[in-house]
Input
Amino acid sequence: MASSGRSDRDELVQRAARHLRTLGATVDLFTEAAAEQLGVNVTDVQCLNIIHEIGSPTAGELATRTGLTSGTITGVIDRLEQAGYVQRRSDPADRRRVRLVPTAEAGRQAQRIFWPILEAASRDYSVYSEDQLRLIIEFLERTQALLANETRTLRVRRGNETNGDS
Output
């Protein structure tokens, strides 16, 4: 009977992995649709989300958080600024430093695009107990950390391949 339990667990792990892949693809497609609505590209939307999350990062902080090069981040910031979603502002503590501040327009657009899905998710989550929600949050945090680590690993590997290391 132990082997049956093991195969049940293996099947559940495989099902979870399949759902994660499908979820990832669905999130990517949603982000692409949001980018189209905002008139920017997917990377810009991801960076705008991080800017909102952090508050008012510097370009360097955004580059560190995303793993993107400084040149790529400059292009992202230029596009987001041109679209009216961020402003560059001097840091009051160090005027040599520039902070990226989301605009009111970015907030309005984010609310228009993302609020409906947040409301629907909130309704869906109402069926879960507090303990179940804690477990879901733990799973999401662990999965996010795993993905962040694997993203760094892929970027390091790509950098080594580009530099001729293998």
In short: The mean pLDDT is 92. The chain has two domains: 2-116, 128-166. Residues 128-166 form one domain. Residues 2-38 form the longest helix (37 residues).
